Amino acid sequence: MRKRLTMRLGTAGIGALVAVLAIAASPAYGMTRPADPAPPAGLSGLEPTGADMPTVGGNLGNQHYSGLTQITRENLDELAPTWRTHLSAVAPASANVGQQTTPIVVEGVIYVDTPSGGVIAVDGVTGDAIWKWDKPAYGTSTTRRGVSAGDGKIFTLAGGNRVVALDQATGAEVWAVQPTGANGEDLGRVGKVATVYYDGVVYAHAADGDRGAVVALDASDGHYLWHFFGGPKRGQLFTGLDGVTFDASATWGPVQADGTDCAEEGGATSWMHGAVDTELGTYIMTFGNARSCTSSQNASGRPGDNLFSDTMVAVDARTGAFKWHYQSIHHDVWDMDNVHPPTLADITVDGEERKVAFYGSKSGHQFVIDRTNGKPVLPVTEQPVITDSRQHNAATQPMPETRLLPDCVEWEKLSADNIPGNPWRGVPNYNGYQADADGNLVFNPDSYVSVDEPFLTYPAGSSGHREGCLYDPQFEAPILSTTSQNGGGDWSNNSYSQSTNLVYFPYGTNPVAHYDGAAANGLRAIGQYQTGGILAYDASTGEVAWRNHLGTDMSHGQGPLTTASDLLFVGQIDGRVLAMDAATGDVLWEFQTGSGISGAPVTYEVDGEQYVAVIAAGSTNPYGGSVTQGDSLWSFKLGGDYTTESGSQEGPATAPLTIRRPVGGAAVEGSTVGNTVLLARSSRTADDAASRDSVSQNGMQPTHLRVPVGTTVTFRNPGAETFPNFPNTKAHCATQFFEGEFNVKLQPGETYQHTFDRAGEYFFNDCTDPRPTGKIEVYLVPQDQPGALKFTPGTLQLGSETGLFTGVDGKVSAHFELPAGYTYDSGAVLITPLSSTPIVASKVTANKNRVIVRFDADDVDNNVPAGEAALTLRINVLNPAGVQEQLSSTATVPVVK
């Protein structure tokens, strides 16, 4: 039997208490420190978590593994929501949505960042708020990734680069500090990364700025203990456990003529929290890519390996003294840092017990590193790679013997029969891969990439050109490669199951073109599919055990949680929580929360009942504004009986995600521009040198053209007849991908016309330089057919006989009467009152006069309210002339739940 924290303060009382204490912005040195640090209940090193989950990593080894077993594969159909709390609605209320955080649980109370960047304590059984800390005088840090607990406090981050301690029972502010080094050093921008507590010490990581440190503070009053920079100070020497002393700053090249030191100007930052090896007394942290002199993608001014960028570093947890390091990428020019939280475990390799750290994310590699010395446990080789002399690329890169994700993009044939194709397919024209007459993408050595050839050196056995592989070099010309700064594992946590001995690795697929000056550390190729999934690999061998490419990006906070009953829980950016078989990867259970998920689930136990909780607040990675954001904290248990306002347990389906990387610029109706696209122009009207032969991403004008089905669009390479002063001077292409509808090369003044006879999105780019990309959106205007729609039976019996959402079963059937001579073509969907995402039919039967459409009731239930509901059926048809049209009809039907 667990005793839960039950202290409550009224909202007004909390606000007054926090307001009084929020001014404490400096160390409270006069406070008395407890005789001994007091860890939160359930804090463990590598032991599975039990009733509580007191760190964002589950345990201090970031295993995200629970020993709880009440929820099993056999009773998953009984798992249902027991409460939902809208965090922003709790006073002090706000309208904020969106957050990337993972909750923690201590003594049955959930502590989590709010969408506004505050902190809230929520009763894990009832969902009632216990206290909320928000809006201090110095402001909050809005993007947050987790809090920590210890010594009766909750540790968070706030505005002005502050680390803050709150009273665990009341939310009252105990101390707030702006950390600086022992000699007044600026430690960087502390404001995002989850804090970590262990043995009276709070660890905070600086990110976002050019240079940032990991800093350790005394938990009693926040005073400075030590710090460690990813970019070392000039001349700083490090001596590891092996007795070897080295000057890390020497790996950044010499100080530049103007006095700039690349290591100290930018260096590397630590984007995610670290792990504590309690047995060895070590704090293990990861640092990101080199970000300085002149940009992350131009390394001409920083020759060398650039330590400690792209490096896992182990230090003494109490003193910060250096122990060892392992660099996963030398001299990074791709923003390919491996920065997810390191995961620690004790495993057996070749019959020997080894203490390891699993390391690697964006690269799609997983390095299994010995925690006692920083050496690889599983084989790693230094493999030769292509180099560019202007970039000072390293001649070799460390490659694990086993690979989790593909090394290279796939240059697949352009064809309507090949949609969407391989998840790692490359956009045509990048890297000189251009479509031949049959749509095959074939390397053209005379394409734009030829400008780099004098500077490139190829290793023996190479194809002699850049194929879009990991670590392909670039300089000024865009070179597409995988896995990218937005792919691989990025910053989602892993999970290690002590039951299966598998490591669970969520990933995204998002190839990126790199070149000097590219925004956001690389151009995610416009028009490509941004997808992802999760895989599991054997911790002892590195071999992939299973892979489930679920279809949405899972590299941006969609961290997995595994349990001793061999279940894996994970959230999706489309709002779904999944329960999967941890041994096989099969999806066994799913629940729609109604808003995107960008953090890991947690599980806990109170009074003998196991709960699973997740915050569904949404984020923007990598789908931008198409992600449905929210403020909901959900909790589930066996037999949970919570229902939403619609009478269903689930939330409505989230808005459609923009899976394909979108073009820039607003949509332009074709009729307003003569249904004409100008190739390789950055402006539709400017007759100047800056606009001609554009290589910018918006170098198709307009970038987004909307036309109805049946429209003929003209593609023009504008010459002197259009721009008499500054016409285009080069040939330019309109290569449509990935269907391969057209691929034309036009000289200045030439045009090409194409008639679009089917609805869809048609992306195209230029073979002269692949960056200019446009899209033709071809749409159908729904034609209302009053009275054509009928549901059978006339009353929809939704809801569940069991009272749980898992018991919703059956079909919803609709009949749509067709006009004479019309035939069904495609796209039968149901438009519902509660969601902007159409429900796709599970079965369509079409005859001469009628279309019979069936939908799964469990897809409909959470998107339709009880009572009278207006439902619209929309279908694509062919008219008597064989031209595609769209028909719709609406019926109002009684809904019973």
From TrEMBL:
It holds the Pfam family PQQ. Residues 683-704 are annotated as: Disordered. Its cofactor is pyrroloquinoline quinone. SMART domains: PQQ (SM00564). Residues 54-612 form the Pyrrolo-quinoline quinone repeat domain. Keywords: Oxidoreductase. Belongs to the bacterial PQQ dehydrogenase family. This is Pyrrolo-quinoline quinone repeat domain-containing protein. It comes from Microbacterium yannicii.
